[in-house]
Amino acid sequence: MNYLINKKNNLRQVSDKVPGSSKYMNILDDLLELFYQKDTAIVVDANLEKSRLEQTLNNHENRNFRLYIGISNRTEPLEVIWSLLHEYGHLLQRPPTDLEQTDGTPEKYEREKDAWRKAEDKFTEYSALCTYFDNFQAYREFSESSYKPK
């Protein structure tokens, strides 16, 4: 159960670097568990501002993933949760097409919106977050706008 040690270390890194995140450790723990259940390698990166989920190179058959949790300049712990929910949405999707991976395409934009819909579905499972739905929506809208086709 090496992943349990890794998960504990990942949670500690988030807690150490993101003020106020300890309040949400149960939710963060649950979200990380969802990724570990899919054999995702997780890296907490203090130099990244955004989180991202990557499929490991040349591995389209069994869908191994690597999750980078960006914690640079994160002053609001809910932003970490929102970004993890979004990346979880991607985890549920089929492998992307070339156009879905290309910035500025309608296909990429639709894929991102779909990941946010899946994130919202998961969001509703956490009663402790319900009062923050407006905050979630604002973060979602800001994020989606960065993917609008050019």
- Radius of gyration using CA atoms only: 15 Å
Q: Shape from CA axes?
A: globular
Q: Report the average pLDDT across residues.
A: 91
Question: Which spans of ≥5 residues are poorly predicted at pLDDT below 50?
Answer: none
Described by strand count, sense and barrel closure, the largest sheet is: 3 strands, mixed
**Strand order of the main beta sheet, please?**
1-3-2
Structural class: mainly alpha
The tally of helices reads 5
What's the order of the H and E elements? Answer: HHEEEHHH
Our measurement of the CA-to-CA distance between the termini, rounded to an integer number of angstroms, reads 46 Å
Approximate helicity band:
40-55%
Task: Bin the strand percentage.
Answer: 5-15%
Number of individual domains: 1
Count of β-strands: 3
Blueprint (SSEs and pairs):
Layout: H1 2-17, H2 25-36, E1 41-45, E2 52-55, E3 65-70, H3 77-92, H4 106-123, H5 133-145
Parallel strand pairs: 1-3
Antiparallel strand pairs: 2-3
Helix pairs in contact: 1-2, 2-3, 3-4
Molecular structure report:
It is a single chain. The chain is mainly α. The chain has one domain (2-145). It is built from five helices and three strands. The chain has helices at 2-17, 25-36, 77-92, 106-123, 133-145, and strands spanning 41-45, 52-55, 65-70. Helix 1 crosses helix 2 (25-36), helix 2 runs parallel beside helix 3 (77-92) and helix 3 (77-92) packs across helix 4 (106-123). The longest helix has 18 residues, at 106-123. The chain is globular and about 40 Å long. It starts with a helix and ends in a 5-residue tail after the last helix. The model has no long low-confidence stretch (mean pLDDT 91).
